[in-house]
Amino acid sequence: MSNFQFQINRSNGVAYIDFNRPEEGNALTRSMMFELARVLRVEGSDPNNRLVVLEARGDFFCKGRDGKGESRAGMTPYEIRLNMMGAVLDVYKALADVAVPVIAKVHAQAVGFGAAVAVACDITLASDAAVFSFPEIEHDIPPTMAMCAALGKIPAKALSFLIYSAEEVDASQVVSLGIASKVFQHQSFDGECQKFIDKLSQKPRLVLETIKRYQDKASHLTPDMASEYAGTLLALVRS
Protein backbone atom coordinates (compact mmCIF):
# COMPACT_ATOMS: atom_id res chain seq x y z
CA MET A 1 0.00 0.00 0.00
CA SER A 2 1.30 3.43 -0.95
CA ASN A 3 2.07 6.07 1.68
CA PHE A 4 0.63 8.65 -0.71
CA GLN A 5 -2.03 10.96 0.70
CA PHE A 6 -4.56 13.13 -1.06
CA GLN A 7 -4.59 16.75 0.01
CA ILE A 8 -7.88 17.39 1.81
CA ASN A 9 -9.16 20.80 2.89
CA ARG A 10 -12.48 21.39 4.61
CA SER A 11 -14.11 24.81 4.62
CA ASN A 12 -17.67 26.08 5.09
CA GLY A 13 -19.32 22.71 4.61
CA VAL A 14 -17.18 21.69 1.62
CA ALA A 15 -14.53 18.94 1.48
CA TYR A 16 -11.94 19.69 -1.21
CA ILE A 17 -9.97 16.63 -2.37
CA ASP A 18 -6.86 17.47 -4.40
CA PHE A 19 -5.33 14.59 -6.41
CA ASN A 20 -2.00 15.99 -5.23
CA ARG A 21 0.27 14.52 -7.94
CA PRO A 22 0.85 17.42 -10.35
CA GLU A 23 4.33 16.15 -11.22
CA GLU A 24 2.73 12.87 -12.40
CA GLY A 25 -0.13 14.51 -14.25
CA ASN A 26 -2.33 13.54 -11.28
CA ALA A 27 -2.37 9.96 -12.57
CA LEU A 28 -3.34 7.44 -9.89
CA THR A 29 -2.08 3.96 -9.15
CA ARG A 30 -4.51 1.17 -8.23
CA SER A 31 -3.77 1.57 -4.54
CA MET A 32 -4.40 5.31 -4.82
CA MET A 33 -7.74 4.60 -6.49
CA PHE A 34 -8.82 2.41 -3.59
CA GLU A 35 -7.72 5.19 -1.24
CA LEU A 36 -9.65 7.79 -3.25
CA ALA A 37 -12.80 5.69 -2.96
CA ARG A 38 -12.29 5.42 0.79
CA VAL A 39 -11.71 9.16 1.17
CA LEU A 40 -14.81 9.96 -0.88
CA ARG A 41 -16.94 7.78 1.37
CA VAL A 42 -15.46 9.23 4.56
CA GLU A 43 -15.90 12.83 3.48
CA GLY A 44 -19.34 12.18 2.02
CA SER A 45 -20.59 10.60 5.24
CA ASP A 46 -19.39 13.48 7.42
CA PRO A 47 -22.56 15.37 8.42
CA ASN A 48 -20.59 18.63 8.40
CA ASN A 49 -19.92 18.32 4.66
CA ARG A 50 -22.60 19.45 2.25
CA LEU A 51 -20.46 19.13 -0.88
CA VAL A 52 -17.39 17.20 -1.98
CA VAL A 53 -15.12 18.77 -4.61
CA LEU A 54 -12.46 16.98 -6.68
CA GLU A 55 -9.70 19.26 -7.94
CA ALA A 56 -6.09 19.21 -9.06
CA ARG A 57 -3.10 21.34 -10.01
CA GLY A 58 -0.68 21.26 -12.90
CA ASP A 59 -1.02 20.49 -16.59
CA PHE A 60 -3.64 17.78 -16.09
CA PHE A 61 -6.80 17.34 -14.09
CA CYS A 62 -5.93 13.64 -14.26
CA LYS A 63 -4.05 11.89 -17.05
CA GLY A 64 -5.50 8.52 -16.09
CA ARG A 65 -4.04 5.45 -14.46
CA ASP A 66 -0.44 5.19 -13.31
CA GLY A 67 0.49 1.60 -14.10
CA LYS A 68 4.17 1.76 -13.21
CA GLY A 69 5.25 -1.26 -11.21
CA GLU A 70 2.01 -3.16 -11.75
CA SER A 71 2.06 -6.86 -12.53
CA ARG A 72 -0.63 -9.48 -12.99
CA ALA A 73 1.85 -12.30 -12.58
CA GLY A 74 0.45 -15.12 -10.50
CA MET A 75 -3.04 -13.61 -10.29
CA THR A 76 -6.13 -15.62 -11.06
CA PRO A 77 -8.79 -13.98 -13.27
CA TYR A 78 -10.84 -13.37 -10.12
CA GLU A 79 -7.90 -11.65 -8.41
CA ILE A 80 -7.30 -9.50 -11.49
CA ARG A 81 -10.96 -8.46 -11.47
CA LEU A 82 -10.92 -7.76 -7.73
CA ASN A 83 -7.58 -5.99 -7.38
CA MET A 84 -7.08 -4.28 -10.73
CA MET A 85 -10.47 -3.62 -12.34
CA GLY A 86 -11.96 -3.34 -8.86
CA ALA A 87 -9.83 -0.30 -8.05
CA VAL A 88 -11.30 1.71 -10.93
CA LEU A 89 -14.86 0.52 -10.39
CA ASP A 90 -14.71 1.26 -6.67
CA VAL A 91 -14.03 4.94 -7.42
CA TYR A 92 -17.05 5.14 -9.72
CA LYS A 93 -19.21 3.41 -7.12
CA ALA A 94 -17.96 5.73 -4.37
CA LEU A 95 -18.85 8.78 -6.46
CA ALA A 96 -22.39 7.45 -6.74
CA ASP A 97 -22.53 6.38 -3.08
CA VAL A 98 -21.60 9.79 -1.66
CA ALA A 99 -24.90 11.14 -0.36
CA VAL A 100 -24.20 14.76 -1.28
CA PRO A 101 -23.23 16.23 -4.66
CA VAL A 102 -19.67 15.60 -5.86
CA ILE A 103 -18.27 18.39 -8.04
CA ALA A 104 -15.33 18.01 -10.42
CA LYS A 105 -13.25 21.14 -11.11
CA VAL A 106 -11.57 20.31 -14.42
CA HIS A 107 -9.00 22.98 -15.16
CA ALA A 108 -6.96 21.12 -17.78
CA GLN A 109 -6.68 17.78 -19.59
CA ALA A 110 -8.72 14.83 -18.38
CA VAL A 111 -7.68 11.56 -20.00
CA GLY A 112 -9.10 8.03 -19.75
CA PHE A 113 -9.82 7.31 -16.10
CA GLY A 114 -9.51 11.04 -15.42
CA ALA A 115 -12.17 11.87 -18.00
CA ALA A 116 -14.42 9.12 -16.64
CA VAL A 117 -14.11 10.45 -13.08
CA ALA A 118 -14.99 13.95 -14.25
CA VAL A 119 -18.04 12.68 -16.13
CA ALA A 120 -19.15 10.45 -13.23
CA CYS A 121 -19.33 13.39 -10.81
CA ASP A 122 -22.73 14.95 -10.21
CA ILE A 123 -21.59 18.35 -11.46
CA THR A 124 -18.60 18.94 -13.74
CA LEU A 125 -17.22 22.47 -14.00
CA ALA A 126 -14.72 22.89 -16.81
CA SER A 127 -12.25 25.56 -17.81
CA ASP A 128 -12.30 26.57 -21.45
CA ALA A 129 -8.74 25.21 -21.49
CA ALA A 130 -9.93 21.73 -20.49
CA VAL A 131 -9.74 18.82 -22.92
CA PHE A 132 -11.38 15.41 -22.43
CA SER A 133 -10.47 12.14 -24.14
CA PHE A 134 -10.91 8.38 -23.93
CA PRO A 135 -7.85 7.05 -25.81
CA GLU A 136 -8.04 3.41 -24.70
CA ILE A 137 -9.00 2.01 -28.11
CA GLU A 138 -5.70 3.35 -29.48
CA HIS A 139 -4.02 0.80 -27.20
CA ASP A 140 -6.44 -1.99 -28.23
CA ILE A 141 -8.24 -1.76 -24.88
CA PRO A 142 -12.05 -1.76 -24.82
CA PRO A 143 -12.81 0.98 -22.26
CA THR A 144 -15.87 -0.70 -20.79
CA MET A 145 -15.17 0.63 -17.30
CA ALA A 146 -14.91 4.23 -18.47
CA MET A 147 -18.11 3.69 -20.43
CA CYS A 148 -19.95 2.43 -17.35
CA ALA A 149 -19.06 5.68 -15.55
CA ALA A 150 -20.56 7.66 -18.45
CA LEU A 151 -23.80 5.70 -18.85
CA GLY A 152 -26.72 7.99 -18.18
CA LYS A 153 -24.44 11.03 -18.33
CA ILE A 154 -23.42 11.13 -22.01
CA PRO A 155 -26.01 10.29 -24.70
CA ALA A 156 -25.43 6.90 -26.32
CA LYS A 157 -24.56 8.17 -29.81
CA ALA A 158 -22.11 10.72 -28.46
CA LEU A 159 -20.51 8.18 -26.13
CA SER A 160 -20.06 5.69 -28.98
CA PHE A 161 -18.27 8.30 -31.08
CA LEU A 162 -16.03 9.41 -28.21
CA ILE A 163 -15.01 5.85 -27.43
CA TYR A 164 -14.52 4.58 -30.98
CA SER A 165 -12.81 7.71 -32.31
CA ALA A 166 -10.61 8.45 -29.26
CA GLU A 167 -10.83 12.08 -30.33
CA GLU A 168 -10.09 14.87 -27.89
CA VAL A 169 -13.08 17.02 -27.03
CA ASP A 170 -12.47 20.66 -26.22
CA ALA A 171 -14.56 22.93 -24.03
CA SER A 172 -16.69 24.18 -26.93
CA GLN A 173 -18.46 20.80 -27.09
CA VAL A 174 -18.43 19.38 -23.57
CA VAL A 175 -21.73 20.80 -22.33
CA SER A 176 -23.71 19.78 -25.42
CA LEU A 177 -22.24 16.26 -25.20
CA GLY A 178 -23.09 15.87 -21.52
CA ILE A 179 -19.45 15.69 -20.45
CA ALA A 180 -19.55 18.89 -18.39
CA SER A 181 -22.23 20.97 -16.69
CA LYS A 182 -20.75 24.45 -17.20
CA VAL A 183 -17.68 26.01 -18.82
CA PHE A 184 -15.90 29.07 -17.45
CA GLN A 185 -13.06 31.11 -18.95
CA HIS A 186 -9.70 29.83 -17.77
CA GLN A 187 -8.64 33.22 -16.42
CA SER A 188 -11.61 33.37 -14.06
CA PHE A 189 -12.12 29.63 -13.59
CA ASP A 190 -11.22 29.32 -9.90
CA GLY A 191 -13.24 32.37 -8.92
CA GLU A 192 -16.34 31.35 -10.89
CA CYS A 193 -16.19 27.82 -9.50
CA GLN A 194 -15.86 29.15 -5.98
CA LYS A 195 -18.88 31.39 -6.41
CA PHE A 196 -20.98 28.43 -7.48
CA ILE A 197 -19.62 26.20 -4.69
CA ASP A 198 -20.11 28.87 -2.02
CA LYS A 199 -23.72 29.43 -3.05
CA LEU A 200 -24.62 25.73 -3.23
CA SER A 201 -22.87 24.91 0.05
CA GLN A 202 -25.26 27.22 1.90
CA LYS A 203 -28.16 24.86 1.22
CA PRO A 204 -29.19 22.31 3.88
CA ARG A 205 -27.50 18.93 3.56
CA LEU A 206 -30.90 17.19 3.57
CA VAL A 207 -32.04 19.18 0.54
CA LEU A 208 -28.85 18.36 -1.36
CA GLU A 209 -29.04 14.68 -0.38
CA THR A 210 -32.67 14.45 -1.47
CA ILE A 211 -32.00 15.94 -4.90
CA LYS A 212 -29.13 13.50 -5.55
CA ARG A 213 -31.13 10.53 -4.25
CA TYR A 214 -34.11 11.37 -6.43
CA GLN A 215 -32.07 11.93 -9.58
CA ASP A 216 -30.30 8.60 -9.08
CA LYS A 217 -33.30 6.46 -8.18
CA ALA A 218 -36.02 8.03 -10.31
CA SER A 219 -34.15 7.37 -13.56
CA HIS A 220 -34.85 3.65 -13.06
CA LEU A 221 -38.59 4.09 -12.40
CA THR A 222 -41.62 4.22 -14.67
CA PRO A 223 -43.03 7.74 -15.11
CA ASP A 224 -45.90 7.14 -12.70
CA MET A 225 -43.62 5.69 -10.03
CA ALA A 226 -41.11 8.54 -10.54
CA SER A 227 -43.95 10.98 -9.92
CA GLU A 228 -45.06 9.13 -6.80
CA TYR A 229 -41.49 8.97 -5.49
CA ALA A 230 -41.03 12.72 -6.10
CA GLY A 231 -44.10 13.58 -4.07
CA THR A 232 -43.22 11.18 -1.25
CA LEU A 233 -39.66 12.51 -0.90
CA LEU A 234 -40.80 16.11 -0.88
CA ALA A 235 -43.48 15.38 1.72
CA LEU A 236 -40.90 13.72 3.97
CA VAL A 237 -38.42 16.58 3.63
CA ARG A 238 -41.06 19.26 4.25
CA SER A 239 -42.66 17.52 7.23
Q: Can you say what the CATH homologous superfamily of the largest domain is?
A: 2-enoyl-CoA Hydratase, Chain A, domain 1
- H and E string: EEHEEHEEHEEHHEEHHH
Kindly identify the CATH topology of the largest domain: 2-enoyl-CoA Hydratase, Chain A, domain 1
Per CATH, the architecture of the largest domain is Alpha-Beta Complex
Structure summary, number of beta strands = 10
Biggest beta-sheet profile: 6 strands, mixed
CATH class annotation of the largest domain = Alpha Beta
| C-alpha geometry | globular
Distance between the termini: 47 Å
- Whole-number average pLDDT? 93
Tally the structural domains: 2
Major sheet: order of its strands?
1-2-3-5-7-10
Count, helices: 8
* SS-derived structural category: alpha/beta
| Helical proportion, percent range | 40-55%
| Model regions low in confidence, pLDDT < 50 over at least 5 residues | none
Give the C-alpha Rg.
Answer: 18 Å
Strand content: 15-25%
Walk me through the structure:
Helix 1 links the parallel strand 2 and strand 3 (51-55). The chain has 2 domains: 7-199, 2-enoyl-CoA Hydratase, Chain A, domain 1 (Alpha-Beta Complex), CATH 3.90.226; 204-238. It has helices spanning 30-45, 77-97, 113-120, 144-150, 156-165, 189-200, 205-218, 223-238; strands at 7-11, 14-18, 51-55, 60-62, 102-106, 109-111, 123-127, 131-133, 169-170, 182-184. The protein is built from 8 helices and 10 strands. It is an alpha/beta fold. The protein is globular, with a radius of gyration of 18 Å. Helix content is 44%, strand content 16%.
